[in-house]
Every structure is written in C-alpha cells, then in structure tokens.
Write a structure and sequence with these properties.
alpha/beta; 6-stranded parallel beta sheet; about 30% helix
Length: about 450
C-alpha cells in the first residue's frame, strides 16, 4: 500500500516507523527538516519538505497515487485543508485525520460538511481510553480488547513468589491457568526472552483469554488485588480533564494543575471531583491531596520531566500504582529502571488504532505491544472449505509462520475451547499474536479467499 503521512512529529514519526515495518511504501511530509532527517535514516521512507496544506507540496508527495493519506501535523487547520485536497482533488480512497479541538469534532454541521468520509483519530482520547482499561485491570501494564470485547489481551509484570516466576518461557507458553488462556510473549528490559530462560520478578508477560476468565488469571498471577478507587491526576489539560470527567461517577477523583486558569476551568467541568492549584512535583502539594491514601496516580501533563518526577515522588509517598504519559521514547526505556509502573505513549496508542485501518477488511482490530515489535490482530475467516487454507482444518494442525500464535477463536460471539477436534469454520474470528509485523501478511493469506483450490 502507498501511504502518505503529513506530519513528522511524534505521532507521524511513530506511524512512519510502524507502517514501514509492515512493508508499505511510505512518504512523509513536514516543514521541520530535523524531524525529516531522522526519518530518512529508515530504509524505504521518502521525505518531502514543506507545508502539507500546499497543493504544490502534496503534488511532490505524489498524493494522487496514494492509497491512504494520514494527516497528523500539529495543527488541526492544516490537517483539515490537506485532507480536503486529498479527498476532493486526488480522490484518495482512505483519509485519516488527527483532530484535537472539539470545535471541529463536536460541531455536527461542520463534521457533515468537511469531515464526512474521513476517519478522525485523537491521540488524547486513545490515551484516556487506555488508562481506563488499565483501571479496569489493576496492576497490568498493557490492555487491549478484541473480538467485540470477547477476548482481552493483557501484559503484566511477574511478581516475586507468584506464578509464573520460576517457570521457563517454554513452560509459560504451555501453561494454562484457565482452559482458554494463552501466554505468547515474555520480555526483560524490552528484550524478548529465549524459551530456555527462567521467568524472574519484573519480567513483562503477555497473554490472551476470554474476558470472563481474565480476573481469575490475574488473581493466579498477581494475588488478590483491591480495586483502584482513589485516583489523583496531575495535569488538567485535555487528557487529564476528560479522564477526570469519565472517572468521577465511579471513583474518588482529585486533580493537580499549576496553571490557575486551567485549574478553574477543570473545576467547572467536574461535578464530583476536586481540583488543587499547584505543582505536581511539590511533595507538600501531593500530601495536601492525600497522596498516601491514593490507589492510582496518573501524570498526564504536557511535560515529560514533570510526569516522571511527580510519579517518582508519588511512589515514595506510598501510592500503589503510577502511570506516566511520555512523548519521548528514551524516557519510556529509562522507566524500566525506576519504580514507575506504566509509561503510556500517545504515539503507540495512535499507531494501534491506525493499524486496523491500514489493513482494511483483512483485520478487524489490531494492537501493538508497548514493547518490541509484536502485535495482536483479529481477522475473520473468508471462504468455505477449499477456498482458503484453513476452513475445515483442525486448529492445532494449521501451520502458522514461526513466532506467531493463535490466541483465540471466536464463533457466534463465543470463545471456543480449542482441543484436538476443533476445526476452523467460515466467519470465525481469529485472534493471533505476531512477533514481527512483517509476518502479518503471511498470516492473513492463510485465512482469506484464494484464487487457488485447497480441497
């Protein structure tokens, strides 16, 4: 697929890197030469310097030949103009646009006039949804919902004196704490573990399971965990305020914001939460907010350093769980050496939402792991027996590419128990873990209609 990305900032750069792994043809447009220079080092990426809203620049980027245009510059207005040119002038088949302001997305007349047939994404909304999923499963570090929420994919850190610590990675992959759970990956400091390595505390482990079985699996691996009801949020920007609004009905919510005008605005939007003006990195201010009695501290300011420092202080003050929003990848990697529990990246959150759109009808949903290059995808089997490579075949006998695993098979909204007699059927939803993005097309070819007969 030929993809043009408008904007080489944090989101655009991550998308370019991710989609390049999927072997697409990528062209990136931006006015910032420094950001473009970084992308030029990646094999296969073409860069164009200039304003993405100018027709001349879009022509240089060969938008007329693009199968998809992704507009993720830092300005909504540029994204809108460029998207309109791609859709109206060049008739681009699929256009994805990032919009931050609710002035555009909340105006129904504007949406129908200018945003119709465009796919609108919002990294801030993606991050907020990710935090809410983590709240649903305390002490996890990565959560994704697939197959219309019938299957949950989860990452967590191994705990001392709890299974699966002490097992080898090979044993982990065959361990089934419930009869439909599947472990698929293990990492230590961002490095995939060899199958002979023994699991240690703090190793990151990933599994997929039916939604109803997830609490039992986490209880087996992490012990009994109390729900996180008391939440303190650092930052009353878009993410912090919207998160507080969504949580206030079911949680005790407090917010710290050092900008007095923003704090006042947030307090007016909350009907059941408290906003404290002040600095989240001030330990006295944290204590004023009852940090020692807080279950979850979430730092979502627009400053990575503040997010890191405030989380570290909160951890020292006794908060159970911390989440830091980080835009810079080096910080994400450094957090493995700290007491901070989870680092969230708007770029990774956005790339996961875009992946399923890139693959069009072949993938219903996709999620990129917070570490490594692994992904979880959901596809639907197309064709009767003989029209593809899997329909009518035993699930356990289908030969998948190396380093890929079937997590679940969902039929008629029910997750199957896979045994020696389970066969694939047309319209089954199959959830698959793929360790390398470059393998996805090989996997998909097994499940899709073919011009050849396999009967």
């Amino acid at each position: 697929m030929n993809i043009v990305i408008l904007g080489a900032g944090a989101v655009g750069g991550t998308l370019a890197d991710t989609l390049n792994d999927h072997l697409h043809r990528i062209t990136v447009v931006d006015e910032n030469l420094t950001q473009l220079e970084r992308l030029r080092r990646l094999d296969g990426i073409v860069t164009v310097a200039g304003n993405a809203a100018e027709p001349r620049i879009l022509n240089q980027a060969n938008v007329e030949e693009a199968d998809m245009v992704i507009a993720v510059t830092g300005r909504d207005e540029i994204n809108i103009v460029a998207s309109q040119v791609a859709r109206s002038v060049h008739d681009t088949p699929k256009v994805i646009i990032r919009l931050r302001s609710k002035e555009y997305t909340g105006n129904e007349l504007y949406k129908s006039e200018y945003l119709d047939n465009l796919v609108v994404i919002n990294p801030e909304s993606e991050v907020r949804a990710q935090i809410e999923r983590l709240l649903q499963y305390p002490y996890t570090i990565d959560v994704a919902s697939l197959a219309d929420n019938e299957v949950i994919f989860i990452g967590f850190r191994a705990q001392r004196d709890m299974p699966p610590c002490g097992k080898t990675v090979s044993d982990l992959m065959t361990w089934m704490p419930t009869n439909r759970a599947r472990f698929v990956a293990a990492f230590r400091k961002f490095v995939p573990l060899d199958r002979t390595i023994e699991i240690r505390p703090k190793d990151e482990l990933y599994f997929g399971a039916p939604t109803a079985e997830v609490p039992d699996i986490l209880r087996e691996c992490l012990g009994t965990i109390q729900p996180e009801r008391k939440v303190l949020i650092a930052g009353a920007g878009r993410i912090g305020t919207e998160l507080a609004e969504h949580l206030q009905d079911d949680h005790s919510v407090r917010v710290i914001e050092r900008d007095s005008d923003r704090a006042y605005e947030a307090s007016n939007r909350l009907h059941d939460g408290v906003v404290y003006p002040g600095d989240a990195t001030d330990v006295l201010k944290q204590r004023e907010c009852e940090i020692g009695d807080t279950d979850l501290f979430v730092a979502v300011t627009n400053d990575d350093e503040i997010n890191v420092m405030s989380c570290l202080l909160a951890k020292q003050e006794g908060v159970r769980q911390t989440i830091a929003l980080l835009n810079q990848d080096p910080y994400v990697r450094l957090l493995n050496e700290t007491s901070i529990d989870v680092a969230l990246s708007p770029q990774r959150a956005t790339s996961s939402s875009v992946l399923s759109l890139v693959h069009e009808n072949n993938i219903r949903s996709a999620h990129r792991l917070r570490v490594g290059t692994g992904e979880v995808i959901e596809t639907v089997i197309r064709g009767k027996a003989g029209e593809n490579r899997v329909t009518g075949k035993l699930v356990n006998k289908v030969s998948l590419p190396t380093r890929t695993s079937i997590l679940a098979v969902v039929r008629d909204s029910k997750v199957l128990t896979i045994d020696d007699g389970t066969k694939f059927e047309e319209d089954d939803h199959v959830v698959i873990y793929v360790a390398e993005a470059g393998l996805i097309q090989k996997v998909l070819r097994l499940f899709q209609l073919s011009a050849f007969s396999f009967s």
